[in-house]
Specification:
Length: 244
């Protein structure tokens, strides 16, 4: 479904990612974990077209989105990548705080705005998925709790029926009740056939709900494997993530 090949991304002269390769197969949850500053958010931004790629490539299905492959350069802008099936829920949620919940969902469906019936159906689906958003639909997004904003950010990305959903630290700053709700929602999305690349600060939680995982350290993949095996290796968790 999603393939990242030999990806290098730089800030100035410094490489934030160095020849990183990973894949997310159809219907999987794949976790990308590592300490702060390892390059996890950079990788998601590169996949969704928000950062330029120095070398390597990003591919969804049989289509190269960005980078270079077989001597051909590809440069797909972010808004077209959304239309090609990549949804991105950014770190910190980044809702449009001065717009209502409903307006945030409409903005998420900008590319299908001319099909009002489809847009309405998708919005109703997300209200069913997140009933709290229905209750708050006329409320300014900036006045929502952190957990409610996270629901809104996820619903906004799901409006476009992405083939692959990129989730960047969805539990960050949330109360335990909302953390559980977010993790349960991610599992429900998998059951519904959504393919997910998950960046999560709660490494043990990410390993508990994912099928496969990559550990990123200083811009490099240092270990990968089935999540069930990685989470049963306390030495690995302590060495690369600093948690027990």
């Amino acid at each position: 479904m999603l393939a990242v090949s030999d990806l290098t991304v730089s800030y100035g002269q410094a490489n934030a990612l160095q020849n990183v390769s990973l894949r997310v197969d159809d219907g999987q949850i794949v976790a990308l974990i590592g300490r702060n500053g390892a390059g996890k958010t950079t990788l998601l931004k590169a996949v969704s077209g928000l950062l330029p790629i120095r070398s390597g490539s990003v591919q969804i299905d049989d289509t190269i989105l960005n980078g270079t492959k077989d001597g051909t350069a590809y440069n797909t802008p972010a808004h077209k990548i959304i239309g090609m099936g990549v949804g991105h829920v950014p770190q910190g949620r980044q809702v449009f705080s001065d717009q209502t919940v409903e307006d945030n969902l409409i903005l998420g469906g900008y590319l299908i705005r001319n099909n009002k019936q489809l847009l309405q159906e998708r919005m109703e689906r997300e209200y069913n998925r997140f009933p709290r958003l229905l209750e708050r639909r006329k409320q300014l997004a900036g006045t929502l709790s952190g957990g409610e904003q996270q629901m809104l950010a996820m619903a906004r990305a799901l409006i476009m029926d992405p083939k692959v959903l990129l989730l960047d630290e969805p539990s960050m700053g949330l109360a335990p009740l909302y953390v559980k709700l977010v993790l349960d929602t991610i599992l429900d999305l998998k059951k519904q056939g959504v393919t997910i690349l998950l960046v999560e600060q709660l490494a043990t939680a990410a390993l508990a709900i994912s099928d496969y995982a990559y550990v990123l350290q200083n811009g490099d993949i240092v270990i990968e494997g089935e999540s069930s095996k990685l989470r049963n290796d306390p030495a690995l968790i302590q060495t690369y993530l600093g948690v027990s």
